[in-house]
UniProtKB/TrEMBL annotation:
Residues 6-374 form the FAD dependent oxidoreductase domain. It comes from Olivibacter jilunii. Coiled coil: none annotated. Belongs to the DadA oxidoreductase family. The lineage of its organism: Bacteria, Pseudomonadati, Bacteroidota, Sphingobacteriia, Sphingobacteriales. This is TIGR03364 family FAD-dependent oxidoreductase. SUPFAM superfamilies: FAD/NAD(P)-binding domain. Its cofactor is FAD. Transmembrane segments: none annotated. Keywords: Flavoprotein, Oxidoreductase. InterPro entries: FAD-dep_OxRdtase, FAD-dependent_OxRdtase_HpnW, FAD/NAD-bd_sf.
Length: 386
């Protein structure tokens, strides 16, 4: 049995890491445990876009907080954050109507955004085809980052700054028991730790801890396919590029745009929507582009049914639509991968208090990179101030 911690966190993706971060800011002694060599789940397999403009209700405000923290961390330590903004490009009159309505909403709440004419879009983003763009909505304060680098650099920053942090990789946790005071956590190698509180941020790992609870939680798992081009540093397409299918998908448009449920679906979108495809572009620091993505779903009890394979058909659908939007050769692909993340059909996040001191905080859906930082700050406040 080793020394007692104020907080033990299982899982070092964005939810686990920033639960630890906000606890450390309070001066607490924190143990952060990661089952793999390093984080390999949804935190590193996404686009690397922080877009509060796509969120609703308190998740929007969590996203705004996330932007503040990303920018503050970047000033102290290079975690790969770049403030190039986000743009939603409308390709037809229905999508134009929606971006106008979303601008009206954000003008009301004071979140800066600008409508761009087709000429302004083409001047700012020369890689967009003139045949695609009608108008766009630009959010200057939003940021992009490198998903395969960010969490590693945040860990390095936290280890250099906080003496009260213990971070262990290759540390699967297979047991957690409520004691009279606090929690005992047991690793697969037999090592045990004592903590005042335990937070479990397990991503789509449902089998190691409390499998019966997760089986009954109602979670689904979404499988996403993404692609990365070879480096194309001369292509001018900076920032978070979101397109017509995104306008027709994101929660903020559904919630805040009166016309959302009145618009039809063009025939050429039908097969794309069947596979949950909406096209995003994000230029990486090496000049390559991440393009995607798609969505396939399975119950958390049958997650293996999603498989490990990459569907060439889905990739072709995405690349064909991407080529309709941009004027560079999207077929120059260096690699493709699948990401998996849990989401709930009714809840924005799954919060389960197993005991007084054992807490599950997981299933943030696709909102982690944007809203995870703000959410974890509120979660730590709730756990330690109530």
């Amino acid at each position: 049995m080793q020394a007692k911690f104020d907080l033990i966190v299982v899982g070092s993706g964005i939810l686990g890491t920033f639960h630890a971060y906000h606890a450390l800011l309070r001066g607490l002694k924190v143990l952060l445990l990661e089952k793999d060599n390093y984080p390999v789940g949804a935190t590193v397999r996404n686009f690397g876009q922080a877009v509060p403009s796509g969120m609703v209700d308190q998740w929007f405000w969590y996203g705004v907080k996330g932007l503040e923290v990303y920018q503050a961390l970047q000033k102290e330590f290079d975690i790969s954050v770049r403030n190039n903004g986000s743009v939603y490009i409308a390709s037809d009159k229905d999508e134009q109507q929606l971006i106008h309505e979303l601008k009206t909403h954000y003008d009301t709440v004071g979140y800066a955004c600008d409508l761009l004419s087709s000429d302004q879009v083409l001047k700012k983003y020369p890689a967009i085809r003139s045949s695609y763009v009608q108008e766009a909505l630009f959010f200057p304060q939003e940021v992009s980052l490198e998903p395969d680098k960010m969490i590693h650099r945040v860990h390095a920053y936290m280890q250099s700054r906080f003496e009260n942090l213990t971070l262990n990789y290759n540390a699967p946790v297979i047991g957690a028991e409520q004691l009279n005071e606090g929690v005992c956590v047991r690793r697969s190698n037999g090592t045990s730790y004592l903590g005042a509180k335990l937070v479990i941020c397990n991503g789509n790992e449902f089998k190691l801890l409390f499998p019966d609870i997760f089986s009954a939680s109602g979670q689904m798992v979404s499988k996403l396919q993404m692609l990365r081009t070879v480096p194309m540093p001369k292509v001018e397409l900076e920032g978070n590029i979101l397109t017509g299918l995104t306008i027709r998908r994101y929660e903020s448009f559904e919630m805040y745009c009166p016309s959302f449920n009145q618009i039809g679906t063009p025939e050429h979108y039908l097969e794309l929507k069947k596979w949950g495809i909406h096209i995003l572009f994000k230029k990486a620091t090496d000049g390559s582009f991440i393009i995607g993505d798609s969505h396939e779903y399975a119950d958390s009890n049958q997650v293996d049914d999603l498989g490990f394979q990459i569907s060439s058909y889905i990739n072709r659908l995405m690349l064909n639509e991407a080529q309709r939007i941009v004027n560079f050769d999207v077929q120059q692909i260096a690699g493709s991968w699948a990401g998996y993340y849990p989401q709930h059909p009714e809840k924005n996040i799954v919060e389960i208090n197993v005991t007084d001191d054992i807490h599950i905080r997981t299933c943030i859906g696709g909102k982690g990179m944007t809203a995870g930082i703000g959410y974890t700050e509120a979660s730590i406040q709730q756990l330690f101030d109530h």
